[in-house]
Write a structure and sequence with these properties.
Helices cover about 45% and strands about 15% of the residues. It is α/β, with parallel strands linked by helices. About 55% of the residues are buried. The structure holds nicotinamide-adenine-dinucleotide. The site of nicotinamide-adenine-dinucleotide has 30 residues, from helix 1, helix 8 and strand 7.
Length: about 450
């Protein structure tokens, strides 16, 4: 898979495995209800009025639009699109745009809510938004996709802006689509405004370090977690589920810290070798053959469920929503889980793992590197002054380490059951502070 772009929540090209997972998610759990449950879980530990929490559980507004787009054969197709602006108390709405047949109002709304708490956890001055179009991009030519994207950008135009709402890539969108949206917006507004969208190609104002950012924040979180738990990441055994942008970069960077990546997988299956793998060589094999399976140094093939229940020091889910449910959680043997994927654990799995004393460091911290470097891209766009990769990485590390410290402080001070609740407690407090400081507008 070519990694040629990055996103706030995903960096995926046309990926059948990932696409399948989203269909599964729709069948398994309503993501909007999961979000509301997570907010309620954390609110139980906060001294906040229920009506104020209720306000946080619903989006401020959702655009639902029908695009009419001419196809290459001259026919006109009607296509559904959404943009949810969940909460803007802490700054402009921020979040990706997804192209997928499973896109619907609840999914987009939930994803926009998670963005609110992710931005607040890592302390960047954004609210949360998310958008989507209900299409399978594989069904369209490039010129049709350009017309669909520009049509959606015209609908978004009154809502978005450098200080209003800043989209980014998500599933099945990337630099190409971001560049089209930027161009449409700038043409219609008769201006230049690169900060209206992030995840752009470098020559259109994209940031250095954006492609590696999610794997990097995952490994920074793992490093801090091991330190906090007084164990050594050097020599630790690691299993990584999913070998796309987030997973493979996490595998590479954790290996560079001296850990031993003993198992990896993708949608075709997994491989395990006690002595560990060279993550770069495995990536090269996947690039050539389309999968990690059959890598010539593989000790043995394993299923994805086997990978998730291996007796390892660190498990990094980096593939799908709902990868570990309540049943599978009973068999997990890892000591620490650091979530690169969005929502890889169901709420039931979270409960089981908490009961079993397995430490889970949540997605809204661990994968926040993507949106954090999107924030850096926006800052650079506003300043028209660009940083080198070293500067981007240093500033990312500083924010993730600070966010980790805030999370563990909340965990101890409030005597919380797990680190997910701690992250939500920190994030909700920050959003509510901004809300209260803003006062009430009748
Ligand atoms: P990607 O498309 O680059 O990679 C996804 C990987 O998961 C692929 O290797 C695919 O084969 C694998 N996969 C699919 N189905 C699988 C299955 N059933 N079992 C095992 N592996 C399977 O996507 P990505 O950008 O790496 O995103 C992965 C996760 O990370 C998603 O949950 C995404 O929301 C999250 N994330 C990514 C970013 C980012 O910037 N890339 C940011 C935040 C969160």
């Amino acid at each position: 898979m070519d990694i040629n772009y990055s996103s706030d929540t995903y960096s995926a090209t046309l990926n059948p495995g990932l696409a399948d997972s989203i269909d599964t998610m729709a069948e398994e759990a309503n993501p909007f209800e999961t979000l509301q449950e997570q907010i309620d879980d954390a609110a139980a530990y906060l001294d906040v009025r229920p009506d104020v929490i209720e306000r946080l559980k619903r989006p401020e507004r959702v655009l639902e639009t029908t695009l009419s787009v001419e196809m290459d054969d001259g026919s006109v197709e009607t296509i559904k699109g959404y943009r949810s602006q969940f909460n803007g108390d802490r700054g402009p709405y921020k979040g990706g745009i997804r192209y997928h047949p499973g896109v619907d109002r609840d999914e987009v709304t939930a994803l926009s809510g998670w963005m609110v708490f992710k931005c607040a956890t890592v302390g960047i001055p954004f609210g949360g938004g998310k958008g989507g179009i209900e299409i399978d991009p594989a069904d369209y030519s490039e010129s049709e996709l350009e017309r669909i994207t520009r049509s959606f950008a015209r609908e978004l135009r009154p809502l978005i802006g450098e200080d209003k709402d800043i989209p980014a890539p998500d599933v099945n969108t990337g630099q190409r689509e971001m560049n089209w949206i930027k161009d449409t917006y700038e043409t219609l507004e008769n201006t230049t405004a690169p900060g209206v969208i992030t995840g752009k190609a470098p020559d259109s104002g994209g940031s250095a370090g954006r492609v590696e950012a999610t794997g990097r924040s995952t490994v920074l979180t793992a490093r801090e977690a091991f330190d906090y738990l007084d164990t050594d990441i050097e020599g630790a055994s690691v299993a990584v589920q999913g070998y796309g942008n987030a997973g493979w970069i996490a595998a590479k960077l954790v290996d560079e810290l001296g850990a031993n990546v003993v198992a990896v997988s993708d949608s075709s299956g997994g491989i395990y070798r006690e002595g560990g793998f060279d993550p770069v060589a495995v990536k090269e094999h996947k690039r050539e053959t389309g999968s990690v399976v059959d890598y010539h140094n593989a000790g043995r093939e394993i299923t994805n469920d086997e990978l998730l229940t291996l007796d390892v020091d660190l498990l990094i889910p980096a593939a799908l929503e709902n990868a570990i449910d309540g049943d599978l959680a009973k068999d997990v043997q890892a000591d620490v889980i650091v979530s690169a994927a969005n929502g890889p654990l169901t709420p039931e799995a979270d409960d089981v793992l908490t009961e079993r004393g397995i430490h889970v460091f949540p997605d809204i911290l661990a994968n926040s590197g993507g949106v954090t470097v999107s924030y850096f891209e926006w800052v650079q766009n506003r300043q028209r002054y660009y940083w080198n990769e070293e500067t981007v990485n240093e500033r990312l590390e500083e924010l993730i380490v600070d966010a980790f410290d805030d999370l563990t402080t909340a965990y101890e001070e409030h005597d919380l059951p797990n680190f997910r609740t701690a992250a939500y407690v920190v994030a909700i407090e920050r959003v509510l502070d901004a809300y209260e400081q803003g006062g009430n507008w009748p």
